[in-house]
């Protein structure tokens, strides 16, 4: 037969053990929950396959033939086809080529759908001696996605959305 003090110790210690276990479990749960909330969520990189064929063809033309041919691909079928702004962009790309050397390749940074018919593509265009940042605003028209504007700048803050800087 157990003594009175042993029963008293069991009666007092048992709830204390349960309480300690519950506190530990709660702390462990809170810690894992905090780690889950602060851990970065991996985001799939955008695919170049999501870009219109004329944008990709323009990048290939820029690498092999130069700015004039690239711009011809980018404006084909869009409202920019007869625009003086397109010629200005070709001149800007020629100036960049003079400074940074030959265009090598581009990385697609982000594709952002603004609506069902408007998408913005953010890129970094890699030259021999430096990067050029690019933004293409694409519109889903009857023939498919076409650029309605594009801008280039060596200053990423003038091209990239704030969340990318």
From TrEMBL:
Residues 1-25 form the signal peptide. Keywords: Signal. It comes from the Bacteria. This is DUF3887 domain-containing protein. It comes from Bryocella elongata.
